[in-house]
Amino acid sequence: MPGVNKDKGAKKPKKTSIPRTPIPEQDAKKRAGNFDEVALGYNRDQALIEASRCLQCKKPKCVAGCPVNIDIPQFIKALEEDDPAAAIAILKQKTSFPAVCGRVCPQEDQCEKLCILGRKHEPVAIGRLERYAADWEAAQGEAAKPGIAAGKGKKVGVVGSGPAGLTCAGELAKQGYDVTIYEALHKPGGVLVYGIPEFRLPKQIVQRECDYVESLGVEIRLDHVIGRTMTVDEMLENGHDAVFIANGAGLPMFMNIPGENFNGVYSANEFLTRANLMKSYRFPDYDTPIKIGKRVAVIGGGNVAMDAARTALRLGAQVHLVYRRSMDELPARREEVHHAQEEGIEFHLLTNPVRIIGDQEGWVEEIEVIKMELGEPDLSGRRRPVPVEGSETRIPVDVVIMAIGTRANPLLTQSTKNLELNKWGNIVADEHTLATSKEGVFAGGDIVTGAATVILAMGAGKIAARSIDRYLRGQPLLTPEEEEEIRAASDKAAAASK
Amino acid sequence: MYKILDKVDYSDDVYMQVIEAPAVARAARAGQFVILRIHEEGERIPLTIADFDREKGTVTIVVQAVGKSTRHLQTLSGGETLANFIGPLGLPSEIENFGTVIMAGGGVGVAPIYPIARELKDAGNKVISILAARTKHLLLWEDKMRDISDEVIVTTDDGSYGRKCLVTEPLKELCEAGGVDLVYAIGPGIMMKFCCKTTEPLGVRTLVSLNSIMVDGTGMCGACRVSVGGETKFVCVEGPEFDGHQVDFDELMSRQRQYLEQEKIANDLYLECRGDAQCLA
Ligand SMILES: Cc1cc2nc3c(=O)[nH]c(=O)nc-3n(C[C@H](O)[C@H](O)[C@H](O)COP(=O)(O)OP(=O)(O)OC[C@H]3O[C@@H](n4cnc5c(N)ncnc54)[C@H](O)[C@@H]3O)c2cc1C
Ligand SMILES: Cc1cc2nc3c(=O)[nH]c(=O)nc-3n(C[C@H](O)[C@H](O)[C@H](O)COP(=O)(O)OP(=O)(O)OC[C@H]3O[C@@H](n4cnc5c(N)ncnc54)[C@H](O)[C@@H]3O)c2cc1C
Ligand code: SF4
Ligand code: SF4
Ligand code: FES
After folding, report:
1. Assigned architecture for domain B100-209
2. Do A245 and A160 touch, CB atoms closer than 8 A?
3. How far apart are CA A185 and CA A165, in angstroms?
4. DSSP string, B19-87
5. What is the rounded distance in angstroms from the CA atom of residue A287 to the CA atom of residue B83?
6. What per-residue confidence (pLDDT) applies to A2?
């Protein structure tokens, strides 16, 4: 690395003067009518230019912003040298699914937020480069398989095939464990397959990642609802030496306002599951129906709300997005908000639903909303929206989609003995080891953190795999050095807060 | 893939299938249901577990063909396979010795009532069964129900067999006579609604098994929600059995009609193409 900057600096244009390379996208008008991917990805020339913008910082800030600490300058350097194979190898040391992360990570809040170039110019497009490397690999055919350690004769059960479960299973299989994933649905992938729509994350990519995990020797047993088909206790009794619970946070919340059970009111989970997993956008070729509204209201402002809104739009509806705070607080990724606006979704900000009004037959007819203004900051530090009295208005709609969040699904946890939960029903797991209150049982991903991100779930899968390996070898879950590191970090934090 | 081991047609549109699904059979209990998918393009359809055999690893379903998927399912016979068969789902029935219980089954609802009645009988209850059908040839599982009941009353709408009346008539008489500790009513929404209307003023606790529209069956989507006692409940995880006097049946029945338009399209297309793979593809 040393010297790179020096050699190049003289001949090439100053790095900071190269603008951030835009990513080619499907035209907004056209894409509003199809489910094909919106962002098309860099070609080789674009990737080379963008990679060349990286300053190859000695103390790269970007790495600290990535939850799994990918060696960002190194993988970008490999791309700059037109060696995507090397780039992918570096990426895979830390993330199992770069094709997914490169597409759906909230980069602007993570790695790219801290990129030094972002201070005065625009940050390096780290996510897009990650995607480029992954797509290059996919185009080469089957992914190179890593070496697999000799069989350890121990069996691990993983509950859930979302990013946390898949990652943990893959890591353990590489180390020679006999791993089975139990998945409730008929397709593996978790939210990546039932929640995030095709136009943001093609399902073929998710399928490829699942195939890869299977190629490492992991068995994915579909149609198995843990807590019903089998309990965690039964898993432990029937030959599993350890269990990793990664069943996500899939219980939709409703607002408890009048009219929520009228026909035409969906949770975002239901709407997206019908569209993505059940492919009802291709009804009647696929059997599962979906109510295609003429006018649809989506309630909420997160990624899930944007996904639901943009899916409804693609099914042919005119879409209103209703969010109770202002644009600044909108939690969805900027890029998604921007795409949604371009595609023609109408935003009603500082607006909150009061009730849903139905017709004689029980179908949604209108939604009554009230204006909000921002008051004092609440516990989250954001200013709390309060209703402006007398400002009620109605929006005529025939479908309402509630995208106001999810909670822990109690189906599994309630059937498991001695598993400590917090007051929201999430599993309590040690932050550093992901060990739960139950011997041999580890947990991670959304079921522990509450709804979070793909990359955090994947990171949890890695930590769990490390802990399970040590547990099954009879070693302490943390090495003395790791303990020391954690202690030092917390001492430092304590000192700083004084 | 899950193998269909046996199929018996009870009438033009009611049939029984035995499916090989050892993991489901091992855990199955009375009152629970499964979700199956016929093929890759298929929808997930919920069906009650009408019987199961842990040793053989089989689950029995009894189905009424009402639309595309259940019609298609009827065409499959022993040896053919289903893409998915998931379960057991929902909470099992609470089995204890209540005393005297009436098991009222309407139409195909007789099948799901059978395993519950069997377990209640084993638990020491006196079991009085009311089997209701539109007409004689639509009556199901009379023999099986006689084997496990202390008393069986049959009603048909047209009087072709048993008493000519609705299920609610004997139900009312029995409850009025007193000594009934619990009623189970399983069948079409309208039948359950009127059974509950019959028992409520008489103060007899009545359990019903709801068949709201479902997708995942694991609590993830909320499609199955109904109002029970003024609160929203997810039938697939908190049910399917509820206190019938608390259920908003009108809302349930309205929500069951959500996809009539699409169901008709799918059904018409299916009937038009019946048997013609090319046309269906
Ligand atoms: C619509 C939507 C859009 C999102 N967009 C983004 C985004 O752009 N970027 C981002 O980083 N994050 C996004 N997220 C969040 C991200 O997808 C999740 O944080 C992540 O998928 C969590 O991973 P997980 O492995 O913990 O759980 P999940 O992905 O939820 O997977 C859990 C799996 O467990 C299965 N399961 C559940 N219960 C059982 C049981 N009892 N037995 C067996 N299996 C069971 C489920 O069926 C599922 O397959 C989005 C989420 C949604 C819903
Ligand atoms: C817990 C439960 C247990 C059930 N047990 C039985 C049973 O033992 N035997 C039996 O014959 N039927 C049972 N049903 C009903 C059965 O699921 C529906 O008849 C079937 O899904 C209809 O599918 P279709 O394509 O043939 O008809 P469609 O034309 O699609 O629908 C006909 C009617 O069936 C209902 N329905 C449609 N889709 C669904 C769905 N995904 N989930 C639930 N209901 C739906 C609707 O009210 C609809 O109007 C049960 C339903 C539930 C929820
Ligand atoms: S995994 Fe996500 S946060 Fe980490 S470098 Fe890639 S895009 Fe950035
Ligand atoms: S902070 Fe930005 S410029 Fe520096 S190494 Fe990271 S990506 Fe490159
Ligand atoms: S069917 Fe989805 S929550 Fe009940």
Report:
1. 3-Layer(aba) Sandwich (3.40)
2. yes
3. 14
4. EE-HHHHHH--TT-EEEEESSTT---EEEE--EEETTTTEEEEEEE--SHHHHHHHT--TT-EESEEEE
5. 14
6. 46
Atom 7 of ligand 3: nearest residue by CA position = A127
Assign B219 to helix, strand or coil.
coil
Answer yes or no: same fold for B2-89 and B100-209. no
Low-confidence ranges of chain B (pLDDT < 50): 281
Secondary structure letter of residue B9 according to DSSP: E
For residue A356, the cross-strand partners are A367
The DSSP bridge pattern shows strands B81-82 and B2-9 to be antiparallel
- What CATH number should be reported for the domain whose range is B2-89? 2.40.30.10
**A168 Cα to chain B: minimum distance (Å):** 23
Q: Give the pLDDT confidence score for residue A493 in this predicted structure.
A: 76
Question: B149 CA to middle of ligand 4, Å?
Answer: 77
Which residues in chain B touch residue A362, judged by CB atoms under 8 angstroms apart?
Answer: 251, 254-255
Closest ligand to the CA of B42: 2
Q: What are the sequence ranges of the domains in chain B? A: 2-89, 100-209
Phi, psi of A466, rounded to the nearest 5 degrees: -65, -45
Chain B partners of A263 at a C-beta cutoff of 8 Å? 254-255, 257-258
Please list, in sequence order, all residues whose beta carbon lies within 8 angstroms of the beta carbon of residue A347, skipping any fewer than 6 positions away: A321, A323, A327, A340, A341
- Hey, what are A402's tokens? 């509630």
CA nearest A315: which of A30, A33, A39, A26? A33
The pLDDT assigned to B271 comes to 82
Angstroms from A227 CA to nearest CA on chain B: 9
Output the pLDDT for position A1: 43
Mark out chain A residues that contact chain B at CB-CB < 8 A. Answer: 184-186, 194, 222-225, 228-230, 250-252, 254, 256, 260-261, 263-264, 266-267, 269-270, 273-274, 278-279, 283-291, 361-362, 409-411
Residue B78 CB partners (closer than 8 Å, separation 6+): B4, B5, B6, B7
Of A190, A277, A223, nearest in space to B85 by CA: A223
Rounded CA separation A469/A97 (Å): 21
Residue B115 CB contacts under 8 Å (≥ 6 apart), including other chains: B30, B31, B49, B50, B51, B52
pLDDT at residue A498 in the model:
64
CA distance B217 to A18: 53
Q: Give which of A438, A439, A464 is closest to A449, Cα–Cα.
A: A464
In this complex, do A284 and B262 lie within 8 Å of one another by their Cβ atoms?
yes
- Which ligand has the shortest distance to the CA of A251? 5
In this prediction, residue A9 carries a pLDDT of 44
Q: How far is CA A449 from CA A268, A422, B267, in A?
A: 20, 11, 44
Comparing alpha-carbon positions, the chain B residue that sits nearest to A286 is B41
Task: Please state, in angstroms and rounded to a whole number, the distance separating the CA atoms of residues A150 and A219.
Answer: 17
Q: What is the mean pLDDT of each run of 10 residues along chain A (498 residues)?
A: 46 73 88 89 94 94 92 96 94 90 92 92 94 93 79 94 96 95 97 95 93 94 96 95 94 94 96 94 89 94 95 95 92 90 94 95 95 87 88 95 94 92 94 95 96 93 95 90 84 74
Chain B residue with CA closest to A251: the answer is B220
Interface mutation vs chain A, best among B19, B216, B257, B270, most A CBs within 10 Å = B216
Asked if A455 and A99 touch (Cβ cutoff 8 Å), the reply is no
Give the best residue of A234, A253, A270 to mutate against chain B (max B CB count within 10 A).
A270
Instruction: Identify the pLDDT of residue B45.
Output: 95
Rounded-to-integer distance, Cα A174 and Cα A160, Å: 19
